[in-house]
Amino acid sequence: MHILSPEGIAHTLEDHVDGGGRYSSIVAMVFKHLLDDIHDSDTIRTVIRRYSVNSDDKIPTATRLSSTPQAEDIKQTYKNADLNLSKTGYIH
Predict the structure, then answer these.
(1) Is the distance from CB of 60 to CB of 86 less than 8 angstroms?
(2) Of 63, 66, 65, 88, which is closest to residue 75 (Cα–Cα)?
(3) Separation CA 48–CA 29 (nearest Å)
(4) I want to staple 42 with a disulfide (CB 3.0 to 4.6 A). Which of 37, 56, 60, 84 is the partner?
(5) What terms describe the molecular function in GO for this protein (predicted)?
(6) Is 74 part of any domain?
């Protein structure tokens, strides 16, 4: 299987795609309003009540996030959604 590009670079959405690069990926999420799901009789697997985006200007890279602001952001998001954080499980 020739999955990796000979150049080691993914040319995503370009005419000369010849494979992927290490750790390259595309994630797509499509959201629909809950009332539209109900109207269309769609299967509802989850409901997003609140969301948050956390970015800390003091970090050197996007992959080295500060744990304290992350934790505070999660706590505040749960509070805003009126959810109990202790009811959330984590599987690793």
Answers:
(1) no
(2) 88
(3) 12
(4) 37
(5) acyltransferase activity
(6) yes
**Within-domain flag for 14:** no
Domain that holds residue 56: 34-87
The separation between CA 18 and the C-alpha centre of its own chain, rounded to angstroms, equals: 26
> Would the CA dihedral through 60, 62, 63, 69 be positive or negative?
positive
Confidence of residue 70 (pLDDT cuts 50, 70, 90): confident
CA distance 34 to 44: 8
- Look at residue 62 and tell me if it is in a domain: yes
- The residue type at 34: L
Q: Is 42 part of any domain?
A: yes
pLDDT of amino acid 59: 61
Those residues whose C-beta lies under 8 Å from the C-beta of residue 81, and which sit 6 or more positions away, are 49, 50
Q: How many domains does the chain have?
A: 1
